[in-house]
Structures are given as C-alpha cells and as structure tokens.
C-alpha cells in the first residue's frame, strides 16, 4: 500500500516537473535546426545516434508530463486503466534514460566535460532508469492494484 502511495506521488511530481520542463525546452526545440545535408555535414552512425538522442531529450518531456499526469490521476481515482497508464509512464522513463547514457559515453569518449558534469549525467540516467524499472516491477504484477483497491475501500 505504501509503495503505491509513493509511486503515485512520484507520478504527480514527475507530471509537474516535466510539465514545467516542457515549457523550458520549447525555445530550444523551436530554435535548434535539424541537421541537413551540407558540404560540411557527414552523417556517421555515432552522429545519427547523437541527433536521435537530442531529439528524444527535447521531445519526451511533454509526453512524460501527460502520461505521468494520467498515471497519477487514474491511480488516485482507482480507475481500471491505472495499471496501464503507470506501466506506460514507467516505460517512458526507461526510454528517457537512454539519451543520458549515450551522452555520458560521448562526454567520456570525446572529453567534453569534467567530472562534475559526468557525475550529473550519470546520476540523471540512473535515476530515470531506476524509476522506470521500479514502476514496471511494481505494476507488472497483475495483483498490484487489486490489493490496493481492497485496502482503500476498508480505510
């Protein structure tokens, strides 16, 4: 029961934080041009991967905000679809952690930043992936919400 409350609060805070982050990255998303073919642009596999990760970092905050808000709301109201929303939000957190690990590899490989930035990117990636794994592990059990619904009715 307490795990469900903690996860519900995490979804609420995630919805709020990623909602605010969506507005913060909007100018960068609008201003940043998508790379196009020029005489100086040569698309290699690593460059394509970094471009894809940049787009994920810019495009996933609105999706995370909406899906986390839906997961929080359905968990709060005890809806039948709450397990699916929570698993979708947890999966999005796993997807959102990928760009941080790819950025970490690029930062270390090309010596782009110091130890503080490397630690920050690593901690961010671990946090998002841990939250995704935690949510998937809890909500993958079919009986995860059935026992919580019974406990909520009796309290």
Question: How would you sum up this structure, described in words?
Answer:
The structure is a single chain. The chain is mainly alpha-helical and 155 residues long. The chain has one domain (2-33, 44-154). The chain contains five helices and no strands.
Shape: elongated
Summarize the main sheet.
Answer: none
Percent of residues in helices comes to over 70%
**Fraction in beta strands:** under 5%
C-alpha end-to-end distance: 11 Å
Order of helices and strands: HHHHH
Number of discrete domains: 1
Radius of gyration, taken over Cα atoms and rounded to an integer in Å: 18 Å
> How many extended strands?
0
SSE class: mainly alpha
The low-confidence runs, each spanning 5 or more residues with pLDDT under 50, are 150-155
What is shown here, in short?
The protein has one domain (2-33, 44-154). The chain is 83% helix and 0% strand.
